[in-house]
Amino acid sequence: MQLGIIQDLIALLPMENILPLMLFAPLVAAFIAYILGARGARALTLVVTFVELLLSLVLIIAILPNPGVMWYEWYFTLSTVQFGSWSAILQIYLGVDGISVAMVFLSNLVVFIAALSSNHIDKSKNLYYMFFLMLQTGLLGVFMSLDLISFFIFWELVLIPMFFIIGRWGEEGCEHAAVKFFIYTHLGSAVMLVSFMALFFLGPGTFNMLSIKAAPIAINIQIGFALAVFLGAGVKLPVFPLHNWLPWAHVKAPTPGSVILAGILLKMGGYGFIRLGLWMVPQGFARLSIPFAILAIFTCIYAAFVAMGQTDVKSMVAYTSINHMAWVLLGVAIGGFAIGGGATEGQLFSASLAVQGAVFMMVSHGMISSVMFILAGQLKYSAGSREIPAIRGLMTKAPRMSAVFILAVFAAFGLPGMSGFIAEVLVLFGSVNIYIWSGFIAFGIFVTVGYLLWTLNRIVFSDPDPEKEVTEAPWSDLIAPILMMIPVIILGLWPDLVLNLVMPIVNDMLGVIP
Amino acid sequence: MQAAFEFPFMTTSLLVLFIGGLLIYLLRGRLEKTSGKIAVGFSAFAAFLMVPPFYRVLVEGGRAAEKVTWSVVLGEFGLYLDEIAFPITFAVVLLGFLSVVYAVGYTEHSENKPTFFANTLFFLMGMQGVTLATNLIEFFIFWELMLVPAYFLILFWGLPETRKRTAIKFWLYTQAGAVCILIGFGLLYFFTGTFELYSILRMAPAIWSDLQLLQLIFVLLAAGFLVKMAVFPIHWWLPPVHAEAPTPISVLLSGAMIETGAYALVRFGIITLGPAAQTLSFWMGVLGVVTMFYGGAMALVQKDIKRLLAYSSVSQMGYVLFALGMITTMGISGGLFHLINHAFSKGLLFMTAGAVIHQTHLRDVDKMGGLSNKMPITAFAAAIGALSIAGSPPLSGFASEWMMFLGGFDAVLMGSGGLARPEFFVLSILAVSSSIVSAGYMLRYLWKVFLGPHPTELEDVRESSNWMTYPMIILGVLIVLFGIFPGLALDVIVPGVEGIATLLP
Question: How many whole angstroms separate alpha carbon A309 and alpha carbon A322?
Answer without folding.
Answer: 14
